């Protein structure tokens, strides 16, 4: 464990610092958006957006390498596709109430399929593993600006419209009766979720996004009395899991994404079991 | 408010859902300070009628007016109380946060002013739950949660209180509590309630609307005592209402 902290201050190993800074800054949108995903019960939608992102990553790499448009990269592709998926999913919830899960499933798989086809046609060998399972140690300085921008965006929008989002998650029918354009707010919530997931993909990879998005919030939900408290607690937990995961993976030479997830899941399991024994009421 | 104008005016309203006719040529006038109970068999159109009134559905034919306005223009006149059982029991929210939701829609961002919180506390006081303001909504009993939702409707400041099945799944004591509260609120509000529970209806409501594709109004005096005894063979509480409203079940004066 000690070598991780010495690596952190080693000027020759900037990627360790970038990973830690990104991880901690990213915990803020993860905790806030994760809370909404948990209380609104849309983790399946978050999963679909996450898997669609492979389509965007593939398209981005293809445009960059096969078409020679150098300014467009996998991150741009991921953002565009994630937002597109958010728009489609919010339309689906509006118009296809009964068949929503089928459409989500279709989007989920089609996004991945398209991504793999693009990767196959992109010249040179691209390892999809780092997108599927994440690698926070590949994070660069420019990623930190993306994280900072997302922090400002998520915290800003949620701080201003907190009550409105609370009402939409708790009782959107009533919010609509009070004259709130619930569909637009739901779309904004899904777009913020989509951007957060793009970032999550960098940290833990497409496959494990749902875990890092929902586990801290689900743990926090056992103790919080308000959504605000749940967000703060989820953010703290998320930061702790990322830091613990990074240092463990560095010390034991293991991939960081899976270590972060395993730590979060183990903690979640302990809390669930602990709550069961301590207070039979709140299971 | 102009007393000659109907609080709720439904004229020639028909509604189809997936090609099936739910309501046909419905006419109904509800006057200010009236208390009316909507009863009828499942699938008879009770909920549809209520959703047309609050503006969650729009009629295919005919029109609904609340104090002369379309439901979507008259949102601020309605205090709507949904069934408490539809809420997620694990949602982390306090009682006062739920009630203050009734003040939403008064500002663009949804931020609450001091006045909004004052109205919230007044509403909680009125339903007798002021000391529960900081409690978690999910920790309350069914009857208490029902009253929190009534407080939310009161905080919104409407003149028409609309309740969806408020007596479902609550105990006797809560029910009589609810009854007292509604009686008090009826002094200043028009009350409309959808229910299965005719026993409750006949104790309190001035009129009963039987909804089964069409709407027939009865003064409650017709439904109490003799008629109920005659139909059910005893003076017991009725939970289901299916027979009362069937076409052959009783004569419509």
Explain this structure to me?
Chain A has 283 residues and is mostly helical. Chain A is 80% helix and 0% strand. In chain A, helix 3 packs antiparallel against helix 10 and helix 8 crosses helix 9. In chain B, 31% of the residues lie in helices and 23% in strands. Chain B contains nine helices and nine strands. The C terminus of chain B is likely disordered. The interface between A and B is medium-sized, with 27 and 29 residues.
Descriptive tags:
heterodimer; A: mainly alpha; globular; B: 253 residues; alpha/beta; 3-stranded antiparallel sheet; disordered C terminus
What is the C-alpha radius of gyration of chain A, as a whole number of Å? Answer: 19 Å
Q: Helix and strand succession of chain B?
A: EEEHEEHHHEHEHEEHHH
Helix content of chain A: over 70%
Over the alpha carbons, how many angstroms does the gyration radius of chain B reach? 18 Å
- Give the tally of β-strands of chain B: 9
Give the neighbour order of strands across the main sheet of chain B. 5-6-7-3-8-9
What global shape of chain B is seen?
A: globular
Secondary structure category of chain B: alpha/beta
Question: Spans of chain B of 5+ residues with little confidence (pLDDT < 50)?
Answer: 227-253
Tell me, what's the shape of chain A? globular
Number of helices of chain B: 9
Mean pLDDT across all amino acids of chain B? 83
Q: In whole angstroms, how far apart are the ends of chain A? A: 35 Å
User: How can the largest sheet of chain A be summarized?
Assistant: none
Topology of chain A as a string of helices (H) and strands (E): HHHHHHHHHHHH
By helix and strand content of chain A, what is the structural category? mainly alpha
Average pLDDT for all residues of chain A? 91
């Amino acid at each position: 464990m000690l070598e991780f902290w010495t690596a952190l201050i080693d000027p020759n190993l900037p990627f360790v610092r970038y990973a830690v800074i990104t991880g901690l800054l990213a915990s803020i949108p993860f905790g806030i958006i994760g809370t909404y995903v948990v209380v609104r019960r849309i983790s399946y939608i978050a999963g679909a957006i996450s898997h669609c992102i492979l389509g965007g990553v593939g398209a981005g790499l293809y445009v960059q390498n096969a078409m020679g448009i150098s300014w467009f990269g996998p991150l741009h592709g991921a953002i565009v596709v994630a937002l597109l998926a958010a728009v489609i999913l919010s339309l689906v919830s509006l118009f296809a109430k009964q068949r929503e899960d089928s459409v989500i499933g279709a989007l989920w798989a089609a996004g991945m399929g398209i991504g793999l086809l693009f990767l196959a046609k992109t010249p040179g060998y691209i390892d999809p593993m780092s997108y599927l399972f994440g690698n926070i140690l590949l994070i660069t300085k420019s990623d930190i600006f993306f994280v900072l921008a997302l922090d400002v965006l998520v915290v800003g929008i949620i701080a201003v419209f907190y009550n409105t989002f609370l009402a939409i998650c708790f009782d959107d029918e009533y919010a609509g009766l009070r004259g709130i354009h619930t569909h637009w707010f739901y779309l904004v919530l899904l777009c913020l979720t989509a951007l957060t997931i793009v970032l999550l993909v960098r940290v833990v990879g497409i496959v494990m996004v749902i875990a890092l998005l929902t586990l801290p919030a689900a743990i926090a939900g056992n103790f919080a009395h308000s959504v605000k408290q749940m967000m703060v607690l989820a953010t703290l937990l998320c930061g702790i899991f990322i830091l613990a995961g990074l240092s463990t993976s560095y010390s034991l030479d293991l991939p960081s994404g899976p270590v972060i997830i395993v730590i979060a899941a183990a903690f979640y399991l302990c809390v669930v079991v602990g709550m069961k024994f301590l207070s039979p009421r709140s299971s | 408010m102009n007393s000659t104008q109907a609080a709720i005016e439904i004229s020639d309203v028909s509604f189809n859902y997936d090609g099936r006719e739910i309501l046909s040529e419905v006419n109904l006038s509800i006057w200010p300070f009236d208390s009316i109970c909507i009863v009828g068999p499942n699938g008879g159109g009770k909920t549809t009628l209520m959703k047309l009134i609050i503006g969650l559905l729009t009629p295919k034919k005919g029109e609904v007016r609340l104090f002369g306005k379309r439901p979507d223009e008259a949102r601020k006149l309605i205090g709507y109380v949904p069934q408490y059982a539809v809420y997620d029991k694990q949602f982390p929210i306090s009682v006062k946060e739920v009630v203050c939701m009734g003040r939403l829609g008064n500002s663009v961002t949804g931020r609450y002013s001091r006045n909004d919180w004052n109205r919230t506390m007044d509403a909680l006081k009125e339903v007798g739950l002021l000391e529960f303001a900081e409690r978690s909504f999910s920790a309350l009993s069914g009857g208490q949660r029902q009253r929190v939702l009534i407080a939310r409707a009161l905080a919104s400041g409407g003149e028409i209180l609309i309740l969806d099945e408020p007596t479902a799944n609550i105990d006797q004591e809560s029910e009589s509590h609810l009854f007292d509260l509604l009686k008090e609120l009826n002094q200043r509000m028009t009350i409309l309630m959808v229910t299965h529970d005719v026993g409750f209806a006949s104790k309190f409501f001035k009129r009963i609307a039987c909804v089964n594709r069409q709407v027939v109004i009865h003064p409650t005096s017709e439904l109490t005592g003799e008629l109920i005894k005659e139909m059910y063979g005893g003076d017991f509480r009725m939970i289901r209402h299916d027979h009362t409203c069937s076409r052959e079940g009783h004569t419509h004066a």
